[in-house]
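Quick one: structure for this chain?
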Amino acid sequence: MATGYEKINKIKCKLRVPMTVSMLAQAMDCGPRTIFRHLNALEQENCGLHKFKKDGETFYVIQTEQKVDFNQKIVKQLEKLKKTMNDTTPLDLKNRKLIDSVISSMQTTDPDGFKAEAITVDPNYIMDYGPFCDHKAQDTMVSKLLSAIRDGFKIRMVYRSTNEETDKKTIEVSPVKLVMRIDTLYLIAADETYPETHIFKNYLVENILSIAQTNNSAITLREPFCVYEHYKYAFGKYVSKEDPQTIELLIKTGWLKTQFIKSRFSPCADITEDKDKNMIVTLKLRMTPDFKTWLFGVLPDVKILKPESLRTEMIEKLKNTLKDMKA
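Got it. Here's what it folds into:
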């Protein structure tokens, strides 16, 4: 559940454009009385809140961004100074109380919430995912997406599907999460079909050619996004609507046993032993291409017990592979 600080800061983000109480209530998924209470709190701050009449309605907007940035910069410096002090000396205790008093007098909502917008990767932190890695997302794109998610606004993006024959298209979506899944960074977002389908869409960040944050509020989720539910019955990257199937494998080698013990599935893998102490792994998955490709690669180390159709398919694939290699 969002804290009072988080709600206030979210309203601040919304009020970078003029909005009425009813517009704010819809964007925040709450009642007008709650919005009035938050606006009263903002009026006590030095954040530049203004209201004006237009077409018979009262609009609110935060206009003095320079003043807000000035306060935030000072507060961040004061907070850093506090961290250099401890509670073991009387002088430090006195100075910490003085700094707290200064911060309070500046009427900031949540000093700890003032963080840099850009989230970059340390150049000394190398993410090497191997020769077939397709993660090419840049820090600037990631920062823009994270900013839109935090601020609660829709984005308009130019997107090109992985299919080379697909033309690029401009779409407007509500960004929900950024998820790194099997070395690939995805934007999880809700498009115009979400209110009816309640299905999120996956967009490869590397395929987003450009983005622009709009002034339209993103959809309000009734329940927090759950990555495990989103990737339920998924083996790797693919999210599909096919019915999941029960897969039962006998694991022959130690290294693969360790992999299953350490891996995380949704729903969880059921690991048991048969009468001969062999590891039996039962999975509930959708038969996606990435799962079949992985299974084909470890066939010497497993025995497919269920379903029979999967075992038959792997046998046929082996026969065709041998035939092609001998041709």
